[in-house]
Design goal:
With 201 residues, the protein is α/β, with parallel strands linked by helices. The protein has one domain (2-199): Rossmann fold (3-Layer(aba) Sandwich). The protein contains seven helices and seven strands; from the N terminus they run ααβαβαβαβαβαββ. It has helices spanning 2-16, 33-46, 60-72, 83-96, 109-117, 138-145, 167-178; strands at 50-54, 75-80, 102-106, 126-131, 149-157, 183-188, 194-199. It has a seven-stranded mixed β-sheet with strand order 3-2-1-4-5-7-6, sandwiched between helices. A hairpin with a 5-residue loop joins strand 6 (183-188) and strand 7. Helix 2 packs parallel to helix 3 (60-72) and helix 5 runs parallel beside helix 6 (138-145). The longest helix is centred in the N-terminal third of the chain and has 15 residues, at 2-16. The mean pLDDT is 93. Pfam families: Methyltransf_3.
């Protein structure tokens, strides 16, 4: 499993340094290793079993989470609309030996979340959520996801501080969450900046 993560870290580093030429829609745009370690640790501390991920990409973050979710006897639903990335992610999951705990929902995040919202079994269901998709819809994603999160459940949102081009959008996101009386939230400087939000009620 960790060999696959290291391989993906090397690929991400090459993409960020522009040492390899990758089409924009095929770039990994992955979380950092430090963020992966943070997610893994929170899942373990919470003994989280039901996870939702919005924005799978090629599965780097998913594998970090799956390593802990497997130990907890849980499973992951992850959302991605890019078929090229889905193909790569499936290969990565196979190599990492985590495929059995991951269900990929292919499509637009908004549509998949709407579908999940209509199913009674997903109300207050997810113990742990990672939001790492398009930033312009982050507030809408959060509002749709919150009813699906269990009391005491954790929502992590990536890219709060970096890249800087997202900062204005993510500032609005942070303000929106801070105004919600049903959560407690804090911005951590780990990785690209992580919003760590706990559902209180």
């Amino acid at each position: 499993m960790f060999e696959v993560l290291e391989e993906l870290e090397r690929q991400s580093s090459l993409e960020k340094s522009r040492k390899v030429d990758v089409a924009p829609n095929e770039r990994m745009l992955a979380i950092t290793k430090e963020t992966g370690e943070l997610l893994n640790m929170i899942i373990r501390m919470k003994n989280a079993k039901n996870m939702l991920e919005v924005g799978m990409s090629v599965g780097y973050s998913t594998i970090w989470c799956a390593e802990a979710i497997i130990e907890n006897g849980g499973s992951i639903i992850t959302i991605e609309q890019n078929p090229v990335k889905i193909k790569r992610a499936k290969e990565n999951f196979q190599k990492a030996g985590v495929s059995e705990v991951i269900t990929i929902e292919e499509g637009l995040a908004m549509e998949v979340l709407r579908k999940l919202s209509l199913q009674e079994k997903y109300k207050n269901f997810f113990d742990f959520v990672l939001i790492d998709a398009d930033k312009e819809n982050a507030i809408e994603y959060f509002d749709m996801i919150l009813p699906l999160v269990s009391i005491g459940g954790v929502i992590i949102t990536d890219n709060m501080l970096y890249p800087e081009k997202y900062r204005e959008e993510m500032k609005k996101y942070s303000q929106h969450i801070h105004a919600n009386q049903n959560v407690r939230t804090i911005t951590s400087p780990i990785g690209n900046g992580e919003e760590i939000t706990v559902k209180l009620r």
